[in-house]
Design brief:
By secondary structure, the chain is α/β, with parallel strands linked by helices. 41% of the residues lie in helices and 15% in strands. The protein contains 14 helices and 12 strands. The strands form 2 sheets. Strands 1, 2, 3, 4, 5 and 11 form a 6-stranded mixed β-sheet that branches.
Protein backbone atom coordinates (compact mmCIF):
# COMPACT_ATOMS: atom_id res chain seq x y z
CA UNK A 1 0.00 0.00 0.00
CA UNK A 2 1.28 3.47 -0.81
CA UNK A 3 2.57 5.56 2.05
CA UNK A 4 0.45 8.56 2.92
CA UNK A 5 1.94 11.99 3.44
CA UNK A 6 4.43 12.01 6.28
CA UNK A 7 3.63 14.17 9.28
CA UNK A 8 5.96 16.27 11.41
CA UNK A 9 5.51 18.99 13.96
CA UNK A 10 5.59 22.46 12.46
CA UNK A 11 9.10 23.86 12.72
CA UNK A 12 10.52 20.49 13.67
CA UNK A 13 12.44 17.95 11.60
CA UNK A 14 10.63 15.88 9.02
CA UNK A 15 9.95 12.44 10.40
CA UNK A 16 10.50 9.88 7.66
CA UNK A 17 8.56 6.68 7.42
CA UNK A 18 9.11 4.40 4.50
CA UNK A 19 8.68 0.98 3.00
CA UNK A 20 11.10 -1.60 4.29
CA UNK A 21 14.14 -1.68 2.06
CA UNK A 22 17.87 -1.84 2.31
CA UNK A 23 20.88 0.18 1.22
CA UNK A 24 20.40 2.78 -1.48
CA UNK A 25 16.77 1.78 -2.04
CA UNK A 26 15.93 2.79 1.52
CA UNK A 27 17.57 6.18 1.02
CA UNK A 28 15.41 6.81 -2.04
CA UNK A 29 12.20 5.59 -0.47
CA UNK A 30 12.59 7.75 2.63
CA UNK A 31 13.24 10.83 0.48
CA UNK A 32 9.70 11.15 -0.84
CA UNK A 33 6.09 10.45 -0.15
CA UNK A 34 4.11 13.69 -0.15
CA UNK A 35 5.81 15.06 2.95
CA UNK A 36 3.46 17.03 5.15
CA UNK A 37 5.04 19.53 7.54
CA UNK A 38 2.47 20.24 10.24
CA UNK A 39 -1.17 19.69 9.39
CA UNK A 40 -1.48 21.58 6.12
CA UNK A 41 1.94 22.10 4.51
CA UNK A 42 3.07 19.69 1.82
CA UNK A 43 6.30 19.04 -0.03
CA UNK A 44 5.75 17.16 -3.29
CA UNK A 45 8.69 15.39 -4.93
CA UNK A 46 8.67 15.62 -8.72
CA UNK A 47 10.77 13.23 -10.77
CA UNK A 48 11.79 13.92 -14.36
CA UNK A 49 14.25 12.53 -16.87
CA UNK A 50 14.67 16.02 -18.38
CA UNK A 51 17.58 18.28 -17.47
CA UNK A 52 16.95 21.55 -15.61
CA UNK A 53 17.22 23.78 -18.70
CA UNK A 54 14.92 21.85 -21.05
CA UNK A 55 11.65 23.42 -22.09
CA UNK A 56 9.78 20.64 -20.28
CA UNK A 57 11.60 21.30 -17.02
CA UNK A 58 11.09 25.04 -17.39
CA UNK A 59 7.38 24.38 -17.77
CA UNK A 60 7.40 22.26 -14.61
CA UNK A 61 9.31 24.98 -12.77
CA UNK A 62 6.65 27.53 -13.68
CA UNK A 63 3.94 25.12 -12.54
CA UNK A 64 5.72 24.58 -9.21
CA UNK A 65 6.00 28.34 -8.65
CA UNK A 66 2.32 28.81 -9.44
CA UNK A 67 1.33 26.03 -7.05
CA UNK A 68 3.37 27.56 -4.24
CA UNK A 69 1.90 31.00 -4.93
CA UNK A 70 -1.68 29.80 -5.10
CA UNK A 71 -1.30 27.94 -1.80
CA UNK A 72 0.64 30.74 -0.05
CA UNK A 73 3.50 28.31 0.45
CA UNK A 74 1.28 25.52 1.69
CA UNK A 75 2.44 23.26 -1.13
CA UNK A 76 5.97 23.31 -2.47
CA UNK A 77 7.41 21.12 -5.20
CA UNK A 78 10.95 19.78 -5.21
CA UNK A 79 12.12 18.89 -8.69
CA UNK A 80 14.55 16.01 -9.19
CA UNK A 81 16.09 16.25 -12.67
CA UNK A 82 17.85 13.90 -15.10
CA UNK A 83 16.61 10.64 -13.54
CA UNK A 84 18.33 11.53 -10.26
CA UNK A 85 15.39 10.10 -8.31
CA UNK A 86 14.12 7.26 -10.51
CA UNK A 87 14.68 6.11 -14.07
CA UNK A 88 12.49 7.39 -16.88
CA UNK A 89 10.89 3.98 -17.39
CA UNK A 90 9.94 3.80 -13.70
CA UNK A 91 8.23 7.19 -13.43
CA UNK A 92 4.62 6.04 -13.42
CA UNK A 93 5.30 3.14 -11.08
CA UNK A 94 7.28 5.38 -8.74
CA UNK A 95 4.23 7.54 -8.05
CA UNK A 96 2.34 4.42 -7.03
CA UNK A 97 4.89 2.91 -4.67
CA UNK A 98 5.89 6.17 -3.00
CA UNK A 99 9.31 6.91 -4.49
CA UNK A 100 7.83 10.08 -6.00
CA UNK A 101 4.64 12.07 -5.67
CA UNK A 102 4.54 13.77 -9.06
CA UNK A 103 6.23 12.50 -12.22
CA UNK A 104 6.94 13.33 -15.82
CA UNK A 105 5.94 10.27 -17.81
CA UNK A 106 7.12 10.08 -21.40
CA UNK A 107 4.97 8.23 -23.91
CA UNK A 108 8.04 6.37 -25.13
CA UNK A 109 8.35 4.83 -21.64
CA UNK A 110 4.62 4.31 -21.02
CA UNK A 111 3.74 1.29 -23.16
CA UNK A 112 3.40 -1.06 -20.19
CA UNK A 113 1.91 1.32 -17.61
CA UNK A 114 -0.25 3.69 -19.68
CA UNK A 115 -0.69 1.80 -22.93
CA UNK A 116 -3.51 3.87 -24.40
CA UNK A 117 -1.57 7.08 -23.82
CA UNK A 118 0.79 5.93 -26.58
CA UNK A 119 -1.89 6.72 -29.18
CA UNK A 120 -0.41 10.22 -29.22
CA UNK A 121 2.82 8.78 -30.69
CA UNK A 122 1.07 7.82 -33.91
CA UNK A 123 2.75 9.61 -36.84
CA UNK A 124 1.02 11.69 -39.53
CA UNK A 125 -1.98 12.49 -37.31
CA UNK A 126 -1.29 16.18 -36.56
CA UNK A 127 1.55 18.65 -36.96
CA UNK A 128 0.12 20.90 -34.24
CA UNK A 129 1.46 20.19 -30.71
CA UNK A 130 -1.24 22.36 -29.14
CA UNK A 131 -3.91 20.18 -30.75
CA UNK A 132 -2.06 17.04 -29.67
CA UNK A 133 -1.82 18.17 -26.04
CA UNK A 134 -5.46 19.22 -25.97
CA UNK A 135 -6.31 15.75 -27.25
CA UNK A 136 -4.29 14.20 -24.42
CA UNK A 137 -6.42 16.10 -21.89
CA UNK A 138 -9.73 15.53 -23.65
CA UNK A 139 -9.16 11.78 -24.05
CA UNK A 140 -8.63 11.62 -20.29
CA UNK A 141 -12.07 13.14 -19.78
CA UNK A 142 -13.96 11.67 -22.73
CA UNK A 143 -12.68 8.14 -23.40
CA UNK A 144 -13.22 5.52 -20.70
CA UNK A 145 -10.70 3.04 -22.14
CA UNK A 146 -7.97 5.70 -22.15
CA UNK A 147 -8.83 6.81 -18.61
CA UNK A 148 -8.87 3.30 -17.17
CA UNK A 149 -5.10 2.94 -17.50
CA UNK A 150 -4.58 6.01 -15.30
CA UNK A 151 -7.09 4.82 -12.72
CA UNK A 152 -5.52 1.35 -12.70
CA UNK A 153 -2.09 2.85 -12.05
CA UNK A 154 -3.45 5.12 -9.34
CA UNK A 155 -2.35 8.34 -11.03
CA UNK A 156 -4.17 11.52 -12.05
CA UNK A 157 -3.27 13.48 -15.16
CA UNK A 158 -2.33 17.05 -14.29
CA UNK A 159 -1.15 18.42 -17.63
CA UNK A 160 0.74 17.42 -20.78
CA UNK A 161 4.16 18.64 -21.90
CA UNK A 162 4.99 19.30 -25.57
CA UNK A 163 7.78 17.80 -27.61
CA UNK A 164 6.91 19.29 -30.99
CA UNK A 165 7.03 17.82 -34.48
CA UNK A 166 9.62 15.22 -35.44
CA UNK A 167 12.64 16.46 -37.35
CA UNK A 168 15.32 14.42 -39.09
CA UNK A 169 18.86 15.72 -38.76
CA UNK A 170 21.23 14.48 -41.47
CA UNK A 171 24.85 14.63 -42.51
CA UNK A 172 23.95 14.62 -46.21
CA UNK A 173 21.20 16.22 -48.27
CA UNK A 174 18.04 14.33 -49.25
CA UNK A 175 15.73 15.25 -52.11
CA UNK A 176 13.07 12.63 -51.53
CA UNK A 177 11.98 9.69 -49.42
CA UNK A 178 14.12 7.24 -51.39
CA UNK A 179 17.23 9.05 -50.17
CA UNK A 180 16.54 7.78 -46.64
CA UNK A 181 16.77 4.17 -47.79
CA UNK A 182 19.70 2.32 -46.24
CA UNK A 183 20.68 5.15 -43.92
CA UNK A 184 21.20 4.50 -40.22
CA UNK A 185 18.98 6.90 -38.33
CA UNK A 186 18.69 7.20 -34.58
CA UNK A 187 14.99 6.74 -33.76
CA UNK A 188 12.67 5.63 -30.97
CA UNK A 189 9.06 4.75 -30.26
CA UNK A 190 6.64 4.44 -33.15
CA UNK A 191 8.88 6.70 -35.24
CA UNK A 192 11.19 3.69 -35.59
CA UNK A 193 8.40 1.85 -37.41
CA UNK A 194 7.99 4.80 -39.75
CA UNK A 195 11.71 4.85 -40.52
CA UNK A 196 11.63 1.13 -41.27
CA UNK A 197 8.80 1.70 -43.72
CA UNK A 198 11.02 4.24 -45.50
CA UNK A 199 13.80 1.67 -45.83
CA UNK A 200 16.00 3.32 -43.23
CA UNK A 201 17.77 1.47 -40.45
CA UNK A 202 16.50 2.82 -37.10
CA UNK A 203 19.12 2.76 -34.35
CA UNK A 204 18.17 2.96 -30.68
CA UNK A 205 20.31 5.23 -28.51
CA UNK A 206 19.86 7.97 -25.96
CA UNK A 207 19.75 11.55 -27.16
CA UNK A 208 22.95 12.23 -25.22
CA UNK A 209 24.81 9.82 -27.53
CA UNK A 210 23.70 11.35 -30.84
CA UNK A 211 26.37 14.04 -31.11
CA UNK A 212 29.29 11.64 -30.74
CA UNK A 213 27.65 8.97 -32.88
CA UNK A 214 27.11 11.47 -35.70
CA UNK A 215 30.67 12.77 -35.50
CA UNK A 216 32.09 9.22 -35.60
CA UNK A 217 29.84 8.10 -38.44
CA UNK A 218 28.03 5.52 -36.35
CA UNK A 219 24.73 6.97 -37.59
CA UNK A 220 23.90 9.03 -40.66
CA UNK A 221 21.29 11.08 -38.87
CA UNK A 222 18.76 11.25 -36.08
CA UNK A 223 15.06 11.70 -35.45
CA UNK A 224 12.63 11.31 -32.55
CA UNK A 225 13.70 14.82 -31.61
CA UNK A 226 12.04 18.18 -32.21
CA UNK A 227 13.69 21.50 -33.04
CA UNK A 228 13.52 22.79 -29.47
CA UNK A 229 15.43 19.70 -28.24
CA UNK A 230 18.49 20.30 -30.39
CA UNK A 231 20.37 22.94 -28.34
CA UNK A 232 20.19 20.71 -25.26
CA UNK A 233 22.19 17.99 -27.03
CA UNK A 234 24.61 20.20 -28.96
CA UNK A 235 22.92 19.44 -32.28
CA UNK A 236 21.70 22.87 -33.36
CA UNK A 237 25.26 23.91 -34.26
CA UNK A 238 26.38 20.60 -35.78
CA UNK A 239 23.56 19.50 -38.10
CA UNK A 240 24.23 20.31 -41.80
CA UNK A 241 20.72 19.35 -42.98
CA UNK A 242 17.42 19.39 -41.11
CA UNK A 243 14.44 17.71 -42.73
CA UNK A 244 10.78 18.21 -41.91
CA UNK A 245 9.57 14.72 -42.92
CA UNK A 246 5.87 15.46 -42.42
CA UNK A 247 5.57 13.01 -39.51
CA UNK A 248 4.22 15.76 -37.26
CA UNK A 249 3.74 15.38 -33.51
CA UNK A 250 5.44 12.11 -32.67
CA UNK A 251 5.49 11.92 -28.89
CA UNK A 252 4.75 13.82 -25.71
CA UNK A 253 4.97 13.46 -21.98
CA UNK A 254 2.58 14.13 -19.15
CA UNK A 255 2.75 15.20 -15.53
CA UNK A 256 0.86 12.91 -13.17
CA UNK A 257 0.28 12.85 -9.42
CA UNK A 258 -0.56 9.98 -7.14
CA UNK A 259 -4.38 9.94 -6.94
CA UNK A 260 -4.53 8.87 -3.31
CA UNK A 261 -2.23 11.68 -2.27
CA UNK A 262 -4.20 14.20 -4.34
CA UNK A 263 -7.50 13.18 -2.77
CA UNK A 264 -6.00 13.34 0.75
CA UNK A 265 -5.02 17.00 0.37
CA UNK A 266 -7.29 19.86 1.51
CA UNK A 267 -9.78 21.02 -1.10
CA UNK A 268 -8.11 24.39 -1.54
CA UNK A 269 -4.82 22.66 -2.37
CA UNK A 270 -6.48 20.34 -4.87
CA UNK A 271 -8.04 23.39 -6.50
CA UNK A 272 -4.66 25.13 -6.61
CA UNK A 273 -3.01 22.15 -8.27
CA UNK A 274 -5.81 22.02 -10.83
CA UNK A 275 -5.69 25.77 -11.49
CA UNK A 276 -1.92 25.77 -11.99
CA UNK A 277 -2.17 22.71 -14.23
CA UNK A 278 -4.70 24.50 -16.45
CA UNK A 279 -1.83 26.76 -17.57
CA UNK A 280 0.37 23.78 -18.47
CA UNK A 281 -0.29 23.76 -22.22
CA UNK A 282 0.18 27.49 -22.72
CA UNK A 283 3.29 27.56 -20.53
CA UNK A 284 4.71 24.52 -22.31
CA UNK A 285 4.22 26.04 -25.75
CA UNK A 286 5.86 29.30 -24.63
CA UNK A 287 8.92 27.45 -23.35
CA UNK A 288 9.12 25.23 -26.42
CA UNK A 289 8.84 28.27 -28.69
CA UNK A 290 11.64 30.04 -26.83
CA UNK A 291 14.07 27.14 -27.22
CA UNK A 292 12.87 26.51 -30.76
CA UNK A 293 13.74 30.09 -31.68
CA UNK A 294 17.22 29.68 -30.20
CA UNK A 295 17.70 26.45 -32.15
CA UNK A 296 16.53 28.07 -35.37
CA UNK A 297 18.89 31.02 -34.95
CA UNK A 298 21.86 28.78 -34.17
CA UNK A 299 21.18 26.56 -37.18
CA UNK A 300 20.80 29.52 -39.51
CA UNK A 301 24.06 31.01 -38.21
CA UNK A 302 25.84 27.71 -38.82
CA UNK A 303 24.52 27.27 -42.33
CA UNK A 304 22.05 24.45 -41.79
CA UNK A 305 19.96 23.77 -44.87
CA UNK A 306 16.25 23.25 -44.13
CA UNK A 307 14.45 20.63 -46.22
CA UNK A 308 10.98 19.14 -46.43
CA UNK A 309 9.40 16.21 -48.24
CA UNK A 310 6.73 16.75 -50.91
CA UNK A 311 3.20 16.26 -49.58
CA UNK A 312 2.46 13.48 -52.08
CA UNK A 313 5.44 11.47 -50.82
CA UNK A 314 4.34 11.96 -47.22
CA UNK A 315 0.85 10.66 -48.09
CA UNK A 316 2.28 7.52 -49.71
CA UNK A 317 4.65 7.02 -46.77
CA UNK A 318 1.77 7.20 -44.28
CA UNK A 319 -0.25 4.61 -46.19
CA UNK A 320 2.65 2.21 -46.63
CA UNK A 321 3.75 2.48 -43.01
CA UNK A 322 0.31 1.51 -41.64
CA UNK A 323 1.43 2.30 -38.09
CA UNK A 324 -2.00 3.24 -36.78
CA UNK A 325 -3.64 -0.02 -37.81
CA UNK A 326 -0.82 -2.05 -36.33
CA UNK A 327 -1.12 -0.06 -33.09
CA UNK A 328 -4.82 -0.92 -32.92
CA UNK A 329 -4.21 -4.60 -33.66
CA UNK A 330 -1.42 -4.86 -31.09
CA UNK A 331 -3.51 -3.53 -28.24
CA UNK A 332 -6.75 -5.21 -29.20
CA UNK A 333 -4.87 -8.50 -28.87
CA UNK A 334 -4.23 -7.43 -25.28
CA UNK A 335 -7.90 -6.78 -24.59
CA UNK A 336 -8.07 -3.01 -25.17
CA UNK A 337 -10.74 -1.33 -27.25
CA UNK A 338 -7.93 0.52 -28.99
CA UNK A 339 -10.10 1.36 -31.99
CA UNK A 340 -12.32 3.57 -29.84
CA UNK A 341 -9.27 5.42 -28.52
CA UNK A 342 -7.89 6.02 -32.01
CA UNK A 343 -11.28 7.11 -33.30
CA UNK A 344 -11.72 9.59 -30.45
CA UNK A 345 -8.16 10.86 -30.88
CA UNK A 346 -8.83 11.59 -34.54
CA UNK A 347 -12.22 13.13 -33.75
CA UNK A 348 -10.69 15.49 -31.21
CA UNK A 349 -7.91 16.45 -33.61
CA UNK A 350 -10.52 17.26 -36.25
CA UNK A 351 -12.44 19.41 -33.77
CA UNK A 352 -9.44 21.24 -32.33
CA UNK A 353 -7.42 21.90 -35.47
CA UNK A 354 -9.68 24.65 -36.89
CA UNK A 355 -9.58 26.60 -33.60
CA UNK A 356 -5.79 26.57 -33.16
CA UNK A 357 -3.44 28.82 -35.10
CA UNK A 358 -0.33 27.51 -33.40
CA UNK A 359 2.70 26.86 -35.64
CA UNK A 360 5.26 24.31 -34.52
CA UNK A 361 8.82 25.73 -34.23
CA UNK A 362 10.06 23.34 -36.94
CA UNK A 363 7.39 24.50 -39.37
CA UNK A 364 7.91 28.15 -38.47
CA UNK A 365 11.68 27.92 -38.89
CA UNK A 366 11.54 25.99 -42.16
CA UNK A 367 8.97 28.30 -43.70
CA UNK A 368 10.78 31.37 -42.40
CA UNK A 369 13.97 30.36 -44.14
CA UNK A 370 12.14 29.98 -47.44
CA UNK A 371 10.61 33.44 -47.30
Amino acid sequence: MRRRARRARAGGPVRTTGLLASGAALAVLTACGGTALGDDTYVLHYTTYSNPTSDQSRTAQRWAEEVEGLTDGGVTVRLHYSESLVGADESAQATLDGRADVAQVGSIYAASDLSMFTVIELPFETDNPEVQMTAIERLYEENEVYREDFDRQGVRLLFPLPLGSAAIGLQDEVTGLDDLRGRSIRAGGLTSDVMLAAGANPIGMTANDIYESMSRGVVDGYTSLALANLPTFGLSRTTPYLLDPGIGAYSSSIVVINEELFQSMPEEYREALTEASAQGISNGLEEMDALGEIACQEMVENGTEFLSLPEEEVAVWKEEAGVAERWVARYEERGYDARSVLDDYRRIIAEETPVSDYADPLVACTEGERE
